[in-house]
Amino acid sequence: MTLLTGSILASLRSTPLLASSWYYIAAATLSVCNRPEEIPVIFRYAIEHDAASLHSISAQETWSRLSPPGSPSGSTASFGSEDESLFVECSNADPDRVRIIARKTREALLKAAALVGLPKSINSLIQLRNATPHEFREDGVMRPAIPMEEEVHRGTEFWNRVYGKVSRRVLSQMSTAYPDLAHYTLQHVYSPLLSYTDVLSAKETSFVIIACLIPQDVNPQLKGHLKGGLNNGATKEEIMSVRDLSMRICRLCGISWKDEVAKLS
Hints:
Blueprint: H1 6-13, H2 22-32, H3 39-50, H4 59-65, H5 95-116, H6 118-131, H7 148-163, H8 167-177, H9 179-194, H10 202-213, H11 219-231, H12 236-252
């Protein structure tokens, strides 16, 4: 049985200021909370309510479709399987809007790997793939091949924008802890992954990062990225809405925190 009832989904979707971003923020949070089976439920609800075309869907029809996929959470048996009965119904939706929703959700789940690790992102992306009709999947790598120096330059600029005046200090602290930590973070996380903004903008990437940090109870990093969201163009109100949405999902998943979750003052 899904955690996400119709009323909960409606509440998440109506989070202030997140009308065009609630679904991928929710998906990223669920991935970190190790509930990949809920990803198709989010995807289905977003298609039915945010990509509606000319045809309307009754509340009863919508509710009847809100069920997690048949494969167990994270099951390797789901990898490579193809069951069209799990596909989200998209025939009554605007195909361009469906592609945007699918693409942004995939990108959020991929970027989540930088914050919580590949296994959870793999399981979540497989579950999303199983729910996505063929015509809305990607058939090639999104990121263009660019020279490494250009990629590292892009990653460094993104890092400096996120951390602002303290960017050098933060990198120095990481290097002091372990020089390879700073090197790996900048060259292999920020450069190829987080700084790529063709699918999710810098601001949207900050939303995903914040949503991924909240379930992990890591206030030092969360504080930095709450401010980083401001540096990437978000308003304080948008960031607090992301925090609220992510925390509501965390509570549904049984997550608790040692101290108050960091917030902007």
